[in-house]
Design brief:
The protein is 37% helix and 21% strand. It is built from seven helices and seven strands, in the order ααββββαβαβαααβ. The chain has a seven-stranded mixed beta sheet with strand order 3-2-1-4-5-7-6, sandwiched between helices.
Length: 233
Amino acid sequence: MRNRETTEWVAREACERLYPHITNPNWLILTARRKLFATWVTRVEGNTLRVLDVGGRIQPYRPLLNGRIRDYYSLDLVAGPLVSAVGKAEALPFPDNHFDLVFCTQMLEYVPVPQEAIDEIHRVLRPSGCLFLSAPAVFPRDSDPEYWRFLPSSLQLLLRNFSNVEIAAEGSTISGLVRTLNVSLITFSPRLLRSILRYTATPALNGLALVLERLARTTNNQFTANFSAFARK
């Protein structure tokens, strides 16, 4: 798909990730991530921000900065309509202490040595600069090569050189279980059945999880499907 990406396709995909429809099997975690990032944006100082998006061919969270951007760069392994530089996260082609904010969402699982990517992000952030990170804890393998899944302790370890780190679950165990069921239904069902499930079972399960979370008021995250992290250099 990447070699056929257009600006219009990227814009549609970015919008669906930031404001997912309830028929999206990832609706629960994407909604939770948007709310977390929207809160964390208020902690980022300045209104003329230099921003780097690592793995940023889609850039769904760029609108959260709402006119505060001076420069926005993106790096990805493959060229795309919005990609500023082609390269690896383990060798960022940018100077030290250059960026106010770095996004790194759902790409660390594809990096052979994640610590190298995190160290590079730390290097290019200015003092007091911020990292917004998201990484999967539970998800079917969807490509090769793919190396890792992440829990709070592993994220804390990777981010140990930052001065301040906050790890947040993208929903509770309830939403983690339902999201895993949703993704599994879509992934492993026959192709002809997928669209039917997406418009019937998926929204029903998403709605059920939302109701159950509000009723249970649980903070248990032992089976959370995804985690986000805020880190300040």
